[in-house]
Write a structure and sequence with these properties.
- It contains 13 helices and 11 strands.
- The chain is an alpha/beta fold.
- The protein has a domain of 229 residues: TIM Barrel (Alpha-Beta Barrel), CATH 3.20.20.150.
- The chain has an 8-stranded parallel sheet with strand order 7-6-5-4-3-2-1-10.
- Helix 8 links the parallel strand 5 and strand 6.
- Helix 6 runs parallel beside helix 8, helix 8 packs parallel to helix 10 and helix 10 runs parallel beside helix 11.
- The longest helix has 22 residues.
- The termini are far apart.
């Protein structure tokens, strides 16, 4: 410290502790009094997979949605119904949710009979889809989320185009049932299976009058896309959502991404919700935080591109711009000596709580005050 600095300090006005505390309180009051984010009129809720470690049933999930002041709950698999999918049981769940002012959306898994992810737990692909449509109708869900498969399907015989064709056949077989039930089939961009342009093609091949999209912002990164750019390609077809933030960064092999709570990643949700608000009226935002593990996208290795033979340079450039904004983060690890299952439950609850708060307070989402 120079003599001049010492001299400045000697002659600086003294501030009492009481005055300093009063100024601090005044500043805190100013922050607290900051106006809330402008409301966008977009319903807000969560996807039950965000709290998968809790293993809650449908009523418990609804109770948590009420606690978080959510407008909507997205139950994306049949397990929370605990095997009771008869009309009377589902009607009880529907009433339970309505009493708490929570709208319901529902989903299930692969309806592509040739996908590496397909399971015959619910019969054939057509039988599975028909069951889902009936469950959605009984719950009052306007959409039924389904998936094609995963990244592995891009490397199966015929590639993703063959799997898309197989899925379209199943969808068309259930067209009349879906339309009569008032249920729109929402196919998700899931686990790196389809690029947004490929999913848009699937919808148009099957029929946009009864098929739409469940848009997953995190999964868009798996197919080397900026989520806002992917949304632009699919916005006209979006029926529901499963959203989360992410950090994306480059490394020696290409890129790495890790999903995060909303507001803790590098996705530009300002641009994203400008598109969403303009193009997806009435569609609910469901938060599906799946944080804690990193995934590699080794695009500098030649074999990587076998899964993406038709990737456009402009799309890849947009992804690289996203990766340039991100930073490396560490995977989730329980505190030393902590029970891993208990720590995972608390981690998931915390990620969802912070995400809902960010969506409401910063992004202006949600209808409930």
């Amino acid at each position: 410290m120079t003599n001049q600095n010492l001299d400045d300090r000697r002659h600086a006005p003294r501030v009492s502790r009481r005055t300093a505390m009063a100024v601090g309180a005044s500043l805190l009051g100013s922050v607290a009094a900051a106006p809330p984010a402008a409301r966008r009129g977009i319903p807000l809720g969560y996807d039950n997979f965000a709290v998968r470690a809790m293993r809650w049933n449908a009523r418990q999930l609804i109770d948590h949605a009420e606690k978080l002041r959510c407008d909507s709950l997205f139950i994306t698999d049949f397990a929370p119904f605990e095997g009771r999918t008869d009309a009377a049981s589902l009607a009880d769940i529907r009433r339970y949710a309505a009493d708490r002012r929570v709208a319901l959306a529902v989903g299930s898994w692969s309806i592509c009979p040739t996908s590496t992810t397909f399971k015959n737990d619910w019969g054939t692909a057509e039988e599975h889809l028909a069951l889902g449509i009936r469950i959605a109708k009984d719950l009052g869900s306007r959409a039924l989320r389904v998936i094609l498969g995963s990244h592995r399907d891009r490397l199966t015989p015929g590639g993703i185009d063959a799997r898309i064709a197989d899925t379209v056949r199943v969808l068309k077989a259930c067209r009349t049932r879906a339309i009569d039930s008032g249920v729109r089939i929402a196919v998700e961009n899931h686990a790196g299976d389809m690029h947004s342009t490929e999913l848009a093609r699937l919808v148009e091949m099957a029929g946009a009058d009864f098929v739409g999209v469940n848009f997953d912002s995190g999964n868009a990164i798996w197919t080397l896309e900026d989520p806002a750019a992917a949304l632009s390609n699919l916005a006209a077809h979006v029926a529901t959502t499963s959203l989360r933030d992410a950090q994306v960064w480059t490394d020696a092999r290409g890129a790495v991404f890790q999903w995060t709570a909303m507001g803790e990643g590098c996705i530009d949700f300002g641009d994203f919700f400008e598109i969403f608000g303009r193009s997806c009226p009435g569609v609910a935002v469901h938060i599906e935080t799946i944080s804690g593990a990193a995934k590699s996208l080794p695009y500098l290795e030649p074999d990587f591109w076998k899964a993406f033979p038709s990737m456009k340079a402009s799309d890849f450039a947009t992804f690289l711009a996203l990766a340039s904004r991100g930073r490396a983060i560490k995977p989730f690890e329980p505190p030393g000596g902590a029970d891993r299952n208990a720590a995972e439950r608390q981690h998931q609850l915390g990620e969802l709580d912070r995400s809902i708060a960010y969506c409401r307070d910063t992004l202006g989402l949600g209808l409930k005050q």
